[in-house]
Structures
1.
Amino acid sequence: MLIVGAGLTGLCTAVRLARAGLVPTVIDARRAGSGTTGHSSAKVSLLQGSMLQRLARHASTETVAAYIAANRSGQEWLLDLLRERDVPFDTRLAMTYAVTESGAKDVEAERQASRDAGLEIIDVGQGDLPFPVLDAIGLPDQAQIDPVATVRALVAELESFGGRVIEGIRMTGSSFTRPWMVSTTAGEVRAEHLVLATQAPVLDRSLDFARIKAYRSYVLAYPVADLLNVPQSMSLSLDDPTRSLRTASTGEGDFLLVGGNGHEVGHGGSTQARVDEIHAWASSHLPVDEPAWSWSAQDYHLTTQVPHIGAVPGTAERLFVATGYDKWGMALASAAGELISGDILGSAPAYAEALRAKGIRTADITETAAQGASVGGRLVGDRVRLAAPGSGQTPPGEGAGRVEGNPVRPTAVSTVDGRTCALSAVCTHLGGVVAWNDAERSWDCPLHGSRFAPDGTLIEGPATSDLEPVTE
Ligand SMILES: Cc1cc2nc3c(=O)[nH]c(=O)nc-3n(C[C@H](O)[C@H](O)[C@H](O)COP(=O)(O)OP(=O)(O)OC[C@H]3O[C@@H](n4cnc5c(N)ncnc54)[C@H](O)[C@@H]3O)c2cc1C
Ligand code: FES
């Protein structure tokens, strides 16, 4: 029983299996929780921005109801575990609001979709936000958690049942037949059941790559002297750009987390400009000064909207994936644990069938075709746009990167901390040409979101190997 990825998905799956008497091993390329989970805003909420109206365009009423049931079940299980392990969390009103006319239309659409699906939302007017709001809905008694403390609690729970997490081991491939012979950076491992809890599946056997988009968004943490001076609700705007707020009490003090400005990974120009723009907005709308930290993370959207959680067809329920949480993976990852462990143990939850019984809708075909065209366009266009050979050019300035050279062998050149590195600009996953991310000083692939450090080391994403250095 091998689970790849020690984020919320992998750990919730492992704990459920361990409690049922199995002894799962979880490996992680980096550290437990070091992926999106540890960088999440971590609102465990059934009110999820514009999710229900989007689901309703792509799926039947039964599937939307099953989505809510999955989130409710995942939320309850996760919060029960935190209570059992004495990990504090806050109960809050979740709010979805708008300050623009077009955002207000989306709030109204979400109000309708929520009521159609039986979610007990309420109208909250202005809520506790200190700036004018056009419309807002809310859901009481949702939760905000500390994702790092949650990961620690899950690891402790897993270990108490004999399971284990091994950090610093990356999966690099697998045999095509069972038992799975899984190659890793620490050697080959044999597994009867293999769970890919890596966000984007690291094997391309689930056909998710044709319909996957990676979205990155940003969070700034502002110290606050008195938490009661800032909004207590967990809010998300449906305007463009979006804004997300929640408070966080930590051993290092109290903070207001301000997030938003999501965009497709490797698309949309300067990422630092997005961070600066959130700070400018926070400074003018909220009682905050300078952020103590800022960070960003990514999650995956499926063009078919409903997350893909379960067995890969044709693998006799022995190879599992969980992806497409669309930045709402806190309750969903816990539900993924219930779904996947249920498949393995023969105890699927009541909502499983309806969640997975998704037919093909016109919205799926349209969005998947647009994504295919976008991927094709970037595959070719990014090469065609390349400048003439780069040799002889001045290296990029500190903190900058550019792609140069010829379309067949593009080179990614960057200078960070005084060191200039030249790498193949071709992503080792499926050949996208990487783009420079100036906020995080990384090379990001616009096709499926793999990211690489300035020296080529793989950071995250479906790729399993580093960018090659160019020695010439
Ligand atoms: C900025 C931001 C804010 C968010 N806020 C919220 C929120 O408020 N509420 C909410 O519900 N959701 C939120 N989300 C979404 C939520 O955080 C994610 O959906 C969830 O954390 C995904 O968990 P995961 O375990 O599937 O993935 P991850 O936490 O990314 O775990 C995957 C793990 O797999 C490992 N891995 C990857 N490849 C390999 C390999 N080849 N070999 C070994 N290990 C590998 C990684 O190192 C990583 O630890 C947010 C997302 C973002 C980006
Ligand atoms: S992540 Fe798929 S090609 Fe780069």
Note: The two ends are 44 Å apart (CA to CA).
2.
Amino acid sequence: MAMNNDTPQHGGNLQQAAQTYGIPHSDWLDLSTGIAPFPWPVPPVPAEVWQRLPEQNGELEQAALNYYGSTALPVPGSQWAIQQLPTLFATSRVLIAQESYEEYRFWWQQQGHNVETFNALPDATQLRERDIVIVINPNNPTAQKYSLQRLQQLANELQQKGGWLIVDEAFMDATPEYSLLPSLQPEQNIVVLRSLGKFFGLAGIRTGFVLGNTCIQTTLQSKLGPWAISHPAQWIATQALADTHWHVAQRQRLLRASTHLQSLLVEYFSPDTLTAAPLFVSVKLDSDTTAQRWQQSLARHGIWIRRFPHWNRLRFGIADDTGLQRLASTLRLMDQ
Ligand SMILES: Cc1ncc(COP(=O)(O)O)c(C=O)c1O
């Protein structure tokens, strides 16, 4: 399978879009990320939280334990863990979906591992000794969901061969019924990553969590140093994780917004090209030229979406009501 060796690109690059299209930063509707457009409402941060070093009082860890139902190591964004994990394993064959969050391929290759891609999860006959399989569930950018049963079976098969399963659940919060967390055993060969950037809309506080295997958590902890997560980030994360009423309302808001976005996009793209997750809708096109035409046309109207040139794919992040109306009227205008 062809491997893309470029440095990973990301959405949220409004500065670049503003320069390319000559539209001021503030006039854009940014749908290029999978970050919730209605974030957890951050209250004013007390002066002493800005001023004082964060002390390890266990409050964040307890809030995370309550929310995830499993011991979680707080890290400065799940991206930090994505970069660290390849350093913990001897050179391995690493398997990951062909279309997936590119940071994995990049960092595992940087560390000298052999990264191979799959279209469907490998079965027992395809696994070798000490393989590492990375699954993003739901996958970014394809929105594919993997069944719990299949992932557990894969983890067992890997365990027998001394391998590991890494599951990135950065986009899982709105659909906890698909999460591996309730079935995690501390000694199992599974690592799960979670993020406060997507569902909570708090990408700026750079806070994520590593769950699953205890040895991996302990090793990663020893690499963190004393104040890896800022005091304001810890203060905000602790409260956001504990706000159970908001979690319920946010799930409903996201599922509704995703449904509305799908209903709109299906007017312009064939239904079999659309796949949806609660935080984004993904469109597979016949060529990158078509994808580029859509991206450029929307960008001329100040709407920024994500294009994946190697995969002929576009990704629309969900919008609030105002954003959705703007997208709807722009698409109508472009269609004339
Ligand atoms: C699948 C996936 N995992 C992890 C991350 C990193 O998120 P963060 O470092 O903000 O927790 C991203 C960011 O886009 C992502 O798409």
Note: The chain has eleven helices and twelve strands.
3.
Amino acid sequence: MDQKKNKKIIGIVGGGQLGRMLTQAGHKLGFKIIVLDPTPNSPAGQIADRQIVGDFKDREKILELASVSDFMTFEIESADNETLQKIKDSGMPVNPNPETLRIIKDKFKQKAFLQEHNIPVAPFALVGSMDDALKQGEIFSYPYLLKARFDAYDGRGNCVVNSKKEIESAFQKLSQSPLYAEKFIKFKKELAVVSARDVYGRIVSFPVVETIHKNNICHIVKSPAPIEKETREKAEGMANKVLDALRGVGVFGIEMFLTTDGEILVNEIAPRVHNSGHHTIEAFNASQFEQHIRAITGMHLLDLEPLSKHAVMINILGERESEAEPKGIEEAESLGYTKAHIYGKVKTKVERKMGHITVLSDNLDEAEAKAVEARKKISI
Ligand SMILES: Nc1ncnc2c1ncn2[C@@H]1O[C@H](COP(=O)(O)OP(=O)(O)O)[C@@H](O)[C@H]1O
Ligand SMILES: [Mg+2]
């Protein structure tokens, strides 16, 4: 295994933008990175030391990745947790723990797990048939949500059901996965915390951010969240409680609702780096990606220092179906304290995450206005 001779190798299941930014952080810390992704020349594969082309659920390919890695992690929930568990059982460090992945990848199991650990979540129920969905409409009242249990992201597994007439079309839209129902939550804001745990058991969290979604997709992140101290402390406490309940080391993204009554509910957990932490690349002494690499390789997490009072991140979503042609990056960055990240995706698609922009500023509103302006200068 020549590859193992010098630098240690991190194997990442998944080669999207998260894998790409993990690769950048891994290289900075002196590791080699090999990614597994079905798309040749994936965003991470373009800059990694090697890409194995294969599916996240392909047992043989995951075993091949393990055979050339010293540490393993994943950037996508659909990674095959059973194979990762076998690899872990054979003595390889695999983090976050595959058992945690098993629970989280099934959104229904995840909700039940949180409830068992006394972590407040929106009322939810299993739905096996349209009859069940009808009953649930009576219990939750309309609108409520039907959600895919598996492989959901960027709102693609969710459907708001406004009346019983919409149940059938919701079932059609979400036919790829078993479903569960969730009460519609009236929230004041959505919040998120990115927390990391290292092998020494220490937890280090980034400040609570506000996330603003458009069409169920993360659009803007404001750091720190413009909320009162009491709310902030509640959200931080909730993140710690979630980490106490979960096994394994690495970074976790914890999405929350701040309800109109001032309560905090956990919406969902990502057992990986998260879109609400992309600003940390520029806004902190260590990014979420660096903290993750540190944690999974047995290094100590760094104490965090903000490098700017405020940061705003805006996603660059595709607006057409075509070959990607990024333009206007320099113009956007010339606004100052503005950094654009383009993920290298070959094809642009409507609402596909193609990149993001981070703006640092002493003033939150100014940062947001500049982020919006910078976004307008970029086409992709
Ligand atoms: N129970 C709910 N009530 C109101 N809005 C919701 C609810 N669940 C999800 N949403 C909205 O949809 C977005 C995406 O839902 P989420 O379950 O987090 O799925 P995804 O895995 O696609 O991120 C959330 O960020 C939120 O804006
Ligand atoms: Mg979400």
Note: The chain has three domains: 2-94, 123-183, 187-377.
